[in-house]
Amino acid sequence: MSNRLDKIISDVTGESINQLKAVSGGDINDSYYVQTMNQEYFVKVNKQGPEAFFNREVEGLHKINETNTINVPSVIDVNDHDDLSYLILEWIDAQNHGDERQLGEQIGQLHKQTHDYFGYPHFTYVGTLKQPNDLYESWNKYYRDQRLLNQIQIGESLGVIKDERQRKAYQLLERIEYLTPEKPDASYLHGDLWSGNWMFSKDGDPYVLDPSFLFGDRHFELAFTELFGGFSNKFYEGYRSTNQIEPYYSDVKPLYQLFYLLVHLNIFGEVYGASVDRIVNYYVG
Q1: What is the DSSP-derived secondary structure letter of residue 145?
Q2: Which helix (H) or strand (E) holds 165?
Q3: Cα–Cα distances in Å, from 76 out to 12, 42, 208?
Q4: How large is the angle between the packed helices 163-179 and 149-158, nearest 10 degrees?
Q5: Which of 141, 171, 208, 233 has the most crowded Cβ, counting Cβ within 10 A?
Q6: 162-210 residue pLDDT tens
Q7: Which of 1, 81, 94 lies closest to 42 in space, CA to CA?
Q8: Closest CA to 23 of 43, 8, 52
Q9: How many C-beta atoms lie closer than 10 Å to residue 254's C-beta?
Q10: DSSP assignment letter at 147
Q11: Where are the beta strands (DSSP E) in the chain?
């Protein structure tokens, strides 16, 4: 594959490759650092990429970039049409420290950008799972029909949601409209904001990566940042300095985290089952 990738990058950049080496970049794709005579690039490759897999990521990067609130890597080229899907991005020299307060401020500013509807016009991906979407006037109907129901149905097909877990999951769906707000602000959301999807450049500037973009309740995003950690108190201090957190957040936080736990249950298996059950039981008894 190396020779083929060399040719693709050379054709796109118009430069010969000085260095190409594998780097860490997640479990889904093969990732590479590429150096030409004049530039450095980050390249993600998937030999059997799902339909529009990288193009949906690029759409999300463009949506976030258009807000002028937080940095994203520049897109050099994307291709989802051949047996070797790829995405070429600018290379960001990363460092392990920076001002997380600034990161929080900029995410808060991102969330101040709003849309008239909830959801997204096209399907996206959460990990490798296809995320169906549509535009809704009601946030809680979108969250129920396109987010939770879809993951429950995937879990049923995989055999990880059945019996008592299945019965209670559907009981919870019937209550979603009473447990979540109908019309919060339809904020611009990264959609997959965990600790592995943000970084600081060598200049200390925050960047976000790998979005699964949607318009939704900003507290949905905040709930995910708290699920697996990786965000300091300074992040939340910065967020509150630019955008408020509504009093209902504590009531809906577990319910919003449930979506991401269902995703992990469906991808990684029963290790996440107890966490799913705990939240479902909390709301339905």
Answers
A1: I
A2: helix 163-179
A3: 8, 10, 17
A4: 180
A5: 208
A6: 999 999 999 999 999 999 999 999 999 999 999 999 999 999 999 999 9
A7: 94
A8: 43
A9: 17
A10: I
A11: 17-23, 30-36, 40-46, 75-79, 85-90, 94-95, 118-119, 124-126, 129-131, 135-136, 187-189, 198-201, 206-208, 214-216
205 is catalytic: no
pTM of the model: 0.94
For 34-86, the pLDDT digits (tens) are 999 889 999 999 887 788 999 999 999 999 999 999 999 999 999 987 678 89
DSSP, collapsed to helix, strand or coil, labels residue 228 as: coil
Those residues with Cβ within 8 angstroms of residue 251's Cβ, 6 or more apart along the chain or in another chain:
179
Q: What is the DSSP letter of 173?
A: H
Among candidate residues 11, 30, 116, 192, the one labeled active-site is 192
Spatial distance between the Cα atoms of 41 and 76, rounded to a whole number of angstroms = 9
Half-sphere exposure (Cβ direction) of 36: Cα atoms closer than 13 Å: 19
